[in-house]
Design a protein that fits this description.
Blueprint (H helix, E strand, L loop, with lengths): L8 E4 L5 H12 L3 E6 L2 H13 L4 E5 L5 H15 L4 E4 L14 H29 L2 E6 L11 H21 L4 E8 L5 H4 L4 H11 L8 H11 L11 E4 L7
Parallel strand pairs: 1-2, 1-4, 2-3, 4-5, 5-6, 6-7
Helix pairs in contact: 1-8, 3-4, 4-5
The structure holds nicotinamide-adenine-dinucleotide.
Nicotinamide-adenine-dinucleotide binds next to α1 and α6.
Protein backbone atom coordinates (compact mmCIF):
# COMPACT_ATOMS: atom_id res chain seq x y z
CA UNK A 1 0.00 0.00 0.00
CA UNK A 2 1.38 3.41 -0.96
CA UNK A 3 0.85 5.71 2.01
CA UNK A 4 1.27 8.78 -0.18
CA UNK A 5 3.82 10.30 2.18
CA UNK A 6 6.56 10.93 -0.38
CA UNK A 7 7.54 14.60 -0.41
CA UNK A 8 5.40 15.50 2.59
CA UNK A 9 7.05 17.40 5.43
CA UNK A 10 6.70 15.73 8.82
CA UNK A 11 7.63 17.43 12.09
CA UNK A 12 7.97 15.08 15.05
CA UNK A 13 8.44 16.58 18.51
CA UNK A 14 10.62 14.71 20.99
CA UNK A 15 12.16 12.69 18.17
CA UNK A 16 15.73 12.65 19.47
CA UNK A 17 15.17 9.13 20.78
CA UNK A 18 12.56 6.47 21.56
CA UNK A 19 9.20 6.34 19.85
CA UNK A 20 9.63 9.78 18.26
CA UNK A 21 12.94 8.81 16.64
CA UNK A 22 11.33 5.67 15.22
CA UNK A 23 8.42 7.72 13.87
CA UNK A 24 10.96 10.05 12.19
CA UNK A 25 12.77 7.05 10.64
CA UNK A 26 9.48 5.58 9.42
CA UNK A 27 8.42 8.83 7.74
CA UNK A 28 11.85 9.09 6.11
CA UNK A 29 11.56 5.52 4.77
CA UNK A 30 8.21 6.51 3.24
CA UNK A 31 9.89 9.39 1.40
CA UNK A 32 8.80 12.23 3.67
CA UNK A 33 11.12 15.11 4.57
CA UNK A 34 11.53 15.14 8.32
CA UNK A 35 12.05 17.76 11.01
CA UNK A 36 13.64 15.97 13.95
CA UNK A 37 12.85 18.16 16.92
CA UNK A 38 13.81 17.70 20.55
CA UNK A 39 14.70 19.66 23.67
CA UNK A 40 17.98 17.74 23.39
CA UNK A 41 19.59 19.18 20.24
CA UNK A 42 22.52 16.73 20.20
CA UNK A 43 20.09 13.80 20.14
CA UNK A 44 18.00 15.41 17.39
CA UNK A 45 21.13 16.04 15.35
CA UNK A 46 22.21 12.43 15.64
CA UNK A 47 18.86 11.13 14.39
CA UNK A 48 18.72 13.67 11.54
CA UNK A 49 22.32 12.92 10.52
CA UNK A 50 21.57 9.19 10.30
CA UNK A 51 18.51 9.90 8.15
CA UNK A 52 20.49 12.16 5.81
CA UNK A 53 23.29 9.57 5.61
CA UNK A 54 20.65 7.05 4.50
CA UNK A 55 19.57 9.32 1.64
CA UNK A 56 16.58 10.99 3.30
CA UNK A 57 16.07 14.71 3.81
CA UNK A 58 16.02 15.76 7.46
CA UNK A 59 16.87 18.74 9.61
CA UNK A 60 17.36 18.88 13.37
CA UNK A 61 15.75 21.53 15.54
CA UNK A 62 16.09 22.24 19.23
CA UNK A 63 12.71 23.00 20.69
CA UNK A 64 11.15 22.88 24.12
CA UNK A 65 7.51 22.43 23.19
CA UNK A 66 6.45 24.37 26.31
CA UNK A 67 7.95 27.54 24.85
CA UNK A 68 5.77 29.41 22.36
CA UNK A 69 8.85 31.27 21.05
CA UNK A 70 10.91 28.12 20.52
CA UNK A 71 7.99 26.44 18.76
CA UNK A 72 7.57 29.46 16.47
CA UNK A 73 11.28 29.36 15.66
CA UNK A 74 11.19 25.62 14.95
CA UNK A 75 8.26 25.99 12.53
CA UNK A 76 9.97 28.97 10.86
CA UNK A 77 13.12 26.85 10.37
CA UNK A 78 11.06 23.99 8.96
CA UNK A 79 9.29 26.35 6.59
CA UNK A 80 12.58 27.86 5.44
CA UNK A 81 14.09 24.42 4.83
CA UNK A 82 11.12 22.58 3.36
CA UNK A 83 8.42 25.15 2.54
CA UNK A 84 5.98 24.25 5.33
CA UNK A 85 4.79 21.48 7.62
CA UNK A 86 2.23 18.96 6.35
CA UNK A 87 2.31 16.53 9.26
CA UNK A 88 2.75 17.25 12.96
CA UNK A 89 3.29 14.50 15.50
CA UNK A 90 2.89 15.75 19.06
CA UNK A 91 5.08 13.10 20.65
CA UNK A 92 7.17 14.98 23.26
CA UNK A 93 6.16 13.87 26.73
CA UNK A 94 7.25 12.12 29.88
CA UNK A 95 5.94 10.96 33.22
CA UNK A 96 6.95 11.95 36.75
CA UNK A 97 5.18 9.38 38.86
CA UNK A 98 4.14 9.91 42.47
CA UNK A 99 0.98 9.41 44.44
CA UNK A 100 -1.05 12.61 44.38
CA UNK A 101 -0.70 13.13 48.13
CA UNK A 102 3.09 13.32 47.63
CA UNK A 103 3.19 15.04 44.25
CA UNK A 104 4.36 18.61 44.24
CA UNK A 105 3.19 21.36 41.93
CA UNK A 106 6.33 21.32 39.77
CA UNK A 107 5.81 17.60 39.00
CA UNK A 108 2.22 18.28 38.04
CA UNK A 109 3.06 21.31 35.89
CA UNK A 110 6.05 19.76 34.09
CA UNK A 111 4.06 16.75 32.87
CA UNK A 112 0.79 18.54 32.08
CA UNK A 113 2.51 21.48 30.37
CA UNK A 114 4.78 19.38 28.18
CA UNK A 115 1.96 17.18 26.99
CA UNK A 116 -0.91 19.65 26.73
CA UNK A 117 0.62 23.07 26.27
CA UNK A 118 3.14 21.47 23.92
CA UNK A 119 0.34 20.17 21.69
CA UNK A 120 -1.39 23.56 21.92
CA UNK A 121 1.67 25.57 20.86
CA UNK A 122 2.80 23.19 18.12
CA UNK A 123 -0.66 22.74 16.61
CA UNK A 124 -1.31 26.49 16.58
CA UNK A 125 2.02 27.09 14.89
CA UNK A 126 1.49 24.65 11.99
CA UNK A 127 -2.25 25.00 11.40
CA UNK A 128 -2.26 28.27 9.38
CA UNK A 129 -0.02 26.67 6.74
CA UNK A 130 -2.04 23.45 6.67
CA UNK A 131 -5.29 25.40 6.35
CA UNK A 132 -3.87 27.47 3.47
CA UNK A 133 -2.79 24.27 1.66
CA UNK A 134 -6.07 22.49 2.53
CA UNK A 135 -4.18 19.41 3.69
CA UNK A 136 -2.72 18.43 7.02
CA UNK A 137 -2.31 15.70 9.57
CA UNK A 138 -1.89 16.01 13.31
CA UNK A 139 -1.20 12.86 15.29
CA UNK A 140 -1.10 13.15 19.07
CA UNK A 141 0.72 10.51 21.08
CA UNK A 142 -1.50 9.76 24.06
CA UNK A 143 -1.21 6.66 26.27
CA UNK A 144 -3.03 3.64 27.68
CA UNK A 145 -2.73 5.53 30.97
CA UNK A 146 -5.92 7.41 30.00
CA UNK A 147 -7.64 4.54 31.83
CA UNK A 148 -5.76 5.53 35.00
CA UNK A 149 -2.54 4.27 36.53
CA UNK A 150 -1.75 4.71 40.21
CA UNK A 151 0.98 7.31 40.66
CA UNK A 152 0.11 8.96 37.35
CA UNK A 153 -2.62 11.50 38.10
CA UNK A 154 -0.59 14.15 36.28
CA UNK A 155 0.27 11.92 33.29
CA UNK A 156 -3.17 10.24 33.00
CA UNK A 157 -4.87 13.64 33.18
CA UNK A 158 -2.67 15.08 30.46
CA UNK A 159 -2.92 12.05 28.17
CA UNK A 160 -6.73 11.95 28.49
CA UNK A 161 -6.74 15.72 27.95
CA UNK A 162 -4.91 15.08 24.70
CA UNK A 163 -7.79 12.83 23.62
CA UNK A 164 -10.26 15.69 24.25
CA UNK A 165 -7.95 18.06 22.40
CA UNK A 166 -7.87 15.61 19.48
CA UNK A 167 -11.65 15.33 19.28
CA UNK A 168 -12.33 19.06 19.51
CA UNK A 169 -9.60 20.07 17.07
CA UNK A 170 -10.66 17.39 14.57
CA UNK A 171 -14.11 18.99 14.40
CA UNK A 172 -12.63 22.46 13.91
CA UNK A 173 -10.29 21.36 11.13
CA UNK A 174 -12.23 18.73 9.15
CA UNK A 175 -13.44 21.24 6.57
CA UNK A 176 -9.85 22.22 5.78
CA UNK A 177 -8.73 18.72 4.79
CA UNK A 178 -6.88 18.35 8.08
CA UNK A 179 -7.32 15.26 10.23
CA UNK A 180 -6.46 15.09 13.91
CA UNK A 181 -6.07 11.71 15.56
CA UNK A 182 -4.43 10.18 18.60
CA UNK A 183 -2.42 7.03 19.14
CA UNK A 184 -2.48 5.56 22.64
CA UNK A 185 0.48 3.22 23.12
CA UNK A 186 0.66 0.57 25.78
CA UNK A 187 4.00 -0.36 27.33
CA UNK A 188 6.74 0.20 24.76
CA UNK A 189 10.36 -0.50 25.62
CA UNK A 190 12.23 2.81 25.39
CA UNK A 191 14.71 4.73 27.53
CA UNK A 192 11.75 6.47 29.20
CA UNK A 193 10.59 3.11 30.56
CA UNK A 194 14.10 1.80 31.26
CA UNK A 195 14.79 4.93 33.36
CA UNK A 196 12.01 3.98 35.78
CA UNK A 197 13.49 2.70 39.08
CA UNK A 198 10.98 -0.19 39.07
CA UNK A 199 11.46 -0.88 35.36
CA UNK A 200 11.97 -4.66 35.65
CA UNK A 201 8.86 -5.17 37.77
CA UNK A 202 6.87 -2.89 35.49
CA UNK A 203 8.05 -4.78 32.41
CA UNK A 204 7.32 -8.22 33.85
CA UNK A 205 3.87 -7.13 35.02
CA UNK A 206 3.16 -5.58 31.63
CA UNK A 207 4.07 -8.82 29.83
CA UNK A 208 2.01 -10.92 32.26
CA UNK A 209 -1.04 -8.68 31.89
CA UNK A 210 -0.80 -8.26 28.16
CA UNK A 211 -3.29 -10.36 26.16
CA UNK A 212 -0.81 -10.79 23.30
CA UNK A 213 1.92 -11.76 25.79
CA UNK A 214 4.66 -9.40 24.63
CA UNK A 215 5.58 -5.72 24.84
CA UNK A 216 5.29 -3.22 22.07
CA UNK A 217 8.28 -1.92 20.14
CA UNK A 218 8.69 1.67 18.90
CA UNK A 219 7.98 0.41 15.39
CA UNK A 220 4.47 -0.69 16.42
CA UNK A 221 3.67 2.92 17.29
CA UNK A 222 5.54 4.37 14.32
CA UNK A 223 3.65 2.20 11.81
CA UNK A 224 0.28 3.22 13.26
CA UNK A 225 1.34 6.87 13.24
CA UNK A 226 2.48 6.73 9.61
CA UNK A 227 -0.87 5.25 8.60
CA UNK A 228 -2.83 7.91 10.52
CA UNK A 229 -0.69 10.60 8.85
CA UNK A 230 -1.15 9.14 5.40
CA UNK A 231 -3.39 9.90 2.49
CA UNK A 232 -5.01 6.49 3.07
CA UNK A 233 -6.45 7.69 6.41
CA UNK A 234 -8.28 10.69 4.97
CA UNK A 235 -11.68 9.48 6.29
CA UNK A 236 -10.41 8.91 9.83
CA UNK A 237 -10.45 11.86 12.22
CA UNK A 238 -11.05 12.49 15.89
CA UNK A 239 -10.26 8.91 16.89
CA UNK A 240 -7.86 7.39 19.37
CA UNK A 241 -6.17 4.21 18.20
CA UNK A 242 -5.05 1.98 21.05
CA UNK A 243 -1.80 0.24 20.21
CA UNK A 244 -1.60 -1.76 23.40
CA UNK A 245 -1.61 -5.45 22.52
CA UNK A 246 -5.22 -5.62 23.70
CA UNK A 247 -4.50 -4.31 27.22
CA UNK A 248 -6.67 -1.43 28.35
CA UNK A 249 -7.12 -1.06 32.12
CA UNK A 250 -4.31 -1.33 34.66
N1 LIG B 1 7.32 4.18 26.15
C1 LIG B 1 6.07 3.89 26.48
O1 LIG B 1 5.76 2.80 26.96
C2 LIG B 1 4.97 4.88 26.21
C3 LIG B 1 3.65 4.45 26.44
C4 LIG B 1 2.62 5.35 26.19
C5 LIG B 1 2.88 6.62 25.74
N2 LIG B 1 4.18 7.00 25.55
C6 LIG B 1 4.40 8.37 25.08
O2 LIG B 1 5.15 8.34 23.89
C7 LIG B 1 5.95 9.52 23.79
C8 LIG B 1 7.41 9.14 23.58
O3 LIG B 1 7.83 8.34 24.66
P1 LIG B 1 9.22 7.57 24.68
O4 LIG B 1 8.99 6.32 25.45
O5 LIG B 1 9.79 7.50 23.33
O6 LIG B 1 10.06 8.57 25.60
P2 LIG B 1 11.60 8.99 25.57
O7 LIG B 1 11.86 9.60 26.89
O8 LIG B 1 12.45 7.86 25.12
O9 LIG B 1 11.62 10.13 24.44
C9 LIG B 1 10.95 11.34 24.64
C10 LIG B 1 11.71 12.45 23.98
O10 LIG B 1 11.00 13.68 24.24
C11 LIG B 1 11.94 14.68 24.53
N3 LIG B 1 11.31 15.73 25.34
C12 LIG B 1 10.98 15.70 26.64
N4 LIG B 1 10.47 16.88 27.02
C13 LIG B 1 10.46 17.68 25.93
C14 LIG B 1 10.05 19.02 25.68
N5 LIG B 1 9.55 19.79 26.67
N6 LIG B 1 10.17 19.50 24.43
C15 LIG B 1 10.69 18.74 23.44
N7 LIG B 1 11.12 17.48 23.61
C16 LIG B 1 11.00 16.95 24.84
C17 LIG B 1 13.05 13.97 25.27
O11 LIG B 1 14.28 14.72 25.22
C18 LIG B 1 13.13 12.65 24.53
O12 LIG B 1 14.06 12.69 23.47
C19 LIG B 1 5.72 10.30 25.08
O13 LIG B 1 4.71 11.27 24.87
C20 LIG B 1 5.20 9.24 26.03
O14 LIG B 1 4.40 9.78 27.05
C21 LIG B 1 5.23 6.17 25.78
Amino acid sequence: MDLGLAGKVALVTGSGRGIGAEIARTFAREGARVVVSDIDLAAARQVAAALNAGGAQAIAARCDVCSKDEVAKMVANATEAFGGVDILVNNAGFNKDRYLTKMDETEWDAVVDTILKGAFHCSRAVLPGMMARKWGRIVNISSRSVFGNPGQTNYSTAKLGLVGFTRALSLEQAKFGITVNAIAPGFVETELMRANPTYETLRDTAVAKNPVGFLGAPDDIASATAFMASERARYITGVTLYVTGGRFSS
